[in-house]
Each structure stands twice: as C-alpha cells, then as structure tokens.
Design brief:
Elements (H helix, E strand, L loop, with lengths): L4 E2 L2 E2 L1 E6 L3 H12 L6 E7 L4 H9 L11 E4 L2 E4 L2 E6 L16 E4 L7 H9 L5 E3 L11 E2 L15 E3 L3 H17 L1 E11 L26 E3 L3 H8 L7 E8 L5 E9 L5 H12 L7 E4 L15 E4 L4 E3 L3 E8 L3 H17 L3
Parallel strand pairs: 3-4, 3-8, 4-7, 8-9, 9-11, 10-11, 12-14, 16-17
Antiparallel strand pairs: 1-2, 5-6, 6-7, 12-15, 13-14, 15-19, 17-19, 18-19
Length: 351
C-alpha cells in the first residue's frame, strides 16, 4: 500500500503492540514533536481494558498530562481529531495487522525476542517490525540499530529491526566516540537504573531473580544486565573488553551510567570534557548533551537526548584511566530514538 501524502511529506501508518511505558511515550513523543501526521498511529494492541488505556494516555505520573485532547471513541481512542482503533489480543496472530494497512509495527510489549516469535507478526500481515528491546541474539533480527552510530546501515529491505535498549543507546555513542578518539582497552559500566514493572512495591513472589522479589521502593537492588553483550553487538571492535553491572534505584525515571575506561592514549579529564562538549554542539547535538551544572537526576526527566555527559563528575586516575558519569531519561530519550529509527528506516523504503 502506497502511503498517502500531506503536500510533499510522506505519511506512514504506524501501529503499536504493547501500550505500556514505552508505547505510551512513543505516541506522546510523536505528538510533542509534531510528527503525528507523518508517523500516524492508527492502531494499538494492548490487553488492558479501554478505559484504563484512555486514562493512562491522558495522565502520566512521570511525564504529566498528555499534550492534546484524548477521549474514548467507540472501541478505540480519539487523539485530537485522529481516531486510533484498539484491540486487546495476547498473541501476535490474533490481530489482522494487514487489515489496518500499516507500514510499521512498533513492538513495545518486550515479550518477543526470538526469531520464531517475531516471525508470527510477519505471518500475521506485518510488513516491518521495530522492536523497543534487543533481540535475544544478533541473528534474531535483521539489524540492531543505535541511532547516530549505525542507522546508516539500514537499506529499507529489512523486516525485523531492533532499537536496542535505552541503556545501550546511552552508552554506545559515548564509547564509540571515546574509542575513535583514544582507543578503549577495557571498560566497566555500572548502570543506576530507575525501577521497572518487573519489581514489586512490597516484597512478594514476583520474579525468579530473588533480588527482584524485594520492594523496589526501599532498596538499591543489583540485577542482571545484558548491556555488555549489547555493546559488543554494536561495537564488535570492543568484543571481550566490556564488563557491566546494573543496580535498580528507587526513583520513577531517569537513570545514570558510571563508566570507567582504560584508554590506549594518555589523556586528561579536561581534554575528555572539551572533546565531549564539542561533540554535543556538533553533529551529535540531537543525541548527546553536555553539562557541568550541579544536577540531580530529576533535572533530566523528559530529556530527549540519548545521553547527557556530566562533565562535573569526570575524573582521571593516572594517564589512561577515565571515569565518566552519563545521565539519560530511560523512557523519553529512548522513545525519541524509536521515532528517529522509524523515520529513517521508512524513508529508506522509498529510495
């Protein structure tokens, strides 16, 4: 189906599967960026009841009220004057995706990562699937993309593309930059990540990881992470050089990464800061920000950048050991990168 046009601007029909934190942020980010006609969400599949979907679209404890009119419209939503149909299926094949005439499905449920699972969407009529999470392995998707690093590799012929993870989107541009400038010998990554919905508010039988059975709001909780594997998938030149750990912290949103890098060249903290500050006002202005203000994490709530380097926290030990602190809004920044990848990928299909 050829997409309709508004003037010279192509308009694509988008669907969302899984309308949780990232799904709702994606729709809201389209609205705030003025892209809801170019990337028009026409269908949402979410098992929750419609009244809850409408309510949680209108009101959000983290990002505030929705920037526009939202109401129930028959069995679906009305955003402004744009109707969005809603289904409540629990399996990919239970939705007739082809009947909705969509150009791209954004998979935000996080439930599917193996090729056989993802193929169910294609078999049900999805032309292209963009994942808001990594595939279980590199071979489970046609490409894993971190916008600003390797989005140029998309050809338009792909059908299954992963947007990696929020943490990978924050880490990889910085590591890529540091490796090109100085050479990275080894890197340790410690993520301080806001709570997620796989954690309970009070202790309970909630997860096979026993630490995640503990109250999310009372403790710092170490948890497993695939960040090192994700970094090496995007930057294979660093294979075997990356170690990572993650700690969940009792905040609703905004996370940070403490990066310790052993470099191949002598360097000072001032030099690193100067180069990163220059990059943040150069070609990476949309993706990377730089600050030396005395920030707390809440200051970066609703920040669209992939990463914000806090130069006030940059340290050097000896000549080749550098410590960086990088902030990121793990919801809003990532939702904006989903938009970037969707736009670029769909544009490539017209080449």
């Amino acid at each position: 189906m050829a997409p309709p046009t508004y003037g010279r601007q192509l308009t694509y029909r988008i669907a969302i599967n899984g309308y949780g934190r990232i799904g709702r942020s994606f729709l809201r980010a389209l609205q705030e960026a003025g892209l809801s006609q170019q990337l028009a969400v026409v269908h949402i599949n979410e098992p929750a009841d419609l009244d809850s979907i409408v309510y949680l679209t209108r009101f959000d404890s983290t990002h505030g009220r929705f920037p526009g009119h939202v109401e129930r419209h028959g069995a679906g939503l009305l955003i402004g004057d744009a109707p969005i149909s809603v289904s409540h299926a629990t399996q990919p094949q239970q939705v007739d995706w082809k009947a909705h005439g969509i150009d791209l499905l954004v998979e935000c449920s996080g439930q599917y990562g193996h090729r056989a699972e993802l193929d169910q969407f294609l078999q049900a009529g999805v032309a292209r699937l963009l994942l808001s999470h990594p595939g279980h392995s590199a071979s489970d998707v046609d490409a894993t993309i971190v916008y600003g690093v390797n989005h140029g590799s998309l050809t338009g012929a792909e059908r299954l593309v992963s947007n990696a993870s929020c943490t990978t989107n924050a880490v990889v541009p910085i590591l890529d930059f540091m490796n090109r400038e100085f050479g990275v010998e080894q890197v340790f990554l410690s993520t301080l990540h806001s709570v997620m919905n796989d954690q309970p508010l009070v202790d309970g039988y909630h997860h096979s990881d026993l630490r995640r059975t503990r109250s999310a709001m009372q403790s710092l909780i170490p948890t497993s992470t695939g960040l090192a594997r994700g970094v090496e998938r995007l930057l294979p030149q660093l294979a075997g050089r990356v170690q990572a750990k993650a700690i969940r912290v009792p905040t609703l949103n905004v996370s940070a990464i403490d990066m310790v890098l052993h470099l191949n060249k002598n360097v000072s903290a001032a030099t690193v800061n100067r180069l990163l500050a220059d990059a943040a006002v150069g070609p990476w202005k949309k993706l990377i920000a730089y600050t030396e203000d005395p920030h707390a994490s809440i200051d970066f709530n609703h920040d669209p950048h992939s990463a914000i380097v806090d130069g006030s926290q940059t340290l050097a030990a000896g000549d080749r050991l550098i410590n960086l602190l990088v902030w990121f809004d793990n919801e809003w920044g990532f939702a904006n990168r989903l938009i970037d990848v969707a736009q670029h990928w769909l544009a490539k299909t017209q080449d």
